[in-house]
């Protein structure tokens, strides 16, 4: 049995294309792997605070010196990190906001990219500790950006995930969603076809 961790980051609950892709992924995965456990963390309904002094204090101070707020921030980071560590497959649903990922997803990454937990520093540089895991990234984009200079999603997420040792990453892009009905239908259809193959 494998564990699947799904991270939703769309600000919209209704009409979200990335959520539609997530639903398709989960349905297909459960059909193919009925014994697997799927956990969904929704960063819109349960926001993760952005990196702040309390979280830094929780990471850096000895337990006896931490304030209650720092202890709470550390406990939250520990919970999110343990969820990631326990997962065999990571699914990130990431609509494109202003050429990049939602700030809520960046906040989640800031909580789980942790020295000594998900990566470590060695004599040869940083080393990811989450080897053996697989990731899928499902994006929704108003325009067409894949492979272009304005795509700051895929390069960043590949680097962030690779930094912690996740190198097997499949991207499914639903693009051209705001370029008219035909473009939307084509972009969503292409994404669904690709998703059917990878999931």
From TrEMBL:
SUPFAM superfamilies for the chain: Flavoproteins
Coiled-coil residue windows: none
Catalytic reactions on record: N,N-dimethyl-1,4-phenylenediamine + anthranilate + 2 NAD(+) = 2-(4-dimethylaminophenyl)diazenylbenzoate + 2 NADH + 2 H(+); 2 a quinone + NADH + H(+) = 2 a 1,4-benzosemiquinone + NAD(+)
Keyword line: Flavoprotein, FMN, NAD, Oxidoreductase
Function: Quinone reductase that provides resistance to thiol-specific stress caused by electrophilic quinones.
PANTHER family noted in UniProt: FMN-DEPENDENT NADH-AZOREDUCTASE 1 (PTHR43741), FMN-DEPENDENT NADH:QUINONE OXIDOREDUCTASE (PTHR43741:SF2)
Name assigned to this protein: FMN dependent NADH:quinone oxidoreductase
Gene responsible for this protein: azoR
């Amino acid at each position: 049995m494998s564990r699947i961790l799904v991270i939703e980051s769309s600000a919209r609950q209704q009409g979200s294309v990335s959520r539609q892709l997530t639903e398709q992924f989960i349905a297909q995965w459960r059909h193919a792997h009925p014994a697997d456990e799927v956990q969904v963390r929704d960063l819109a309904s349960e926001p993760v605070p952005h990196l702040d002094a309390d979280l830094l204090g929780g990471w850096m101070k000895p337990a006896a010196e931490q304030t209650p707020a720092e202890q709470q921030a550390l406990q939250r980071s520990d919970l999110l990190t343990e969820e990631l560590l326990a997962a065999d497959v990571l699914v990130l649903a990431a609509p494109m906001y202003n050429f990049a990922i939602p700030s809520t997803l960046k906040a989640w990454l800031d909580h789980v990219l942790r020295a000594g937990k998900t990566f470590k520093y060695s004599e040869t540089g940083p080393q990811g500790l989450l080897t053996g895991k697989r990731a899928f990234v499902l994006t929704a984009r108003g325009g067409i950006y894949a492979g272009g200079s304005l795509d700051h999603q895929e390069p960043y997420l590949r680097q962030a995930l690779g930094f912690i040792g996740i190198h097997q990453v499949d991207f499914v892009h639903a693009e051209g969603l705001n370029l008219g009905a035909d473009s939307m239908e084509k972009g969503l259809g292409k994404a669904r076809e690709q998703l059917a193959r990878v999931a």
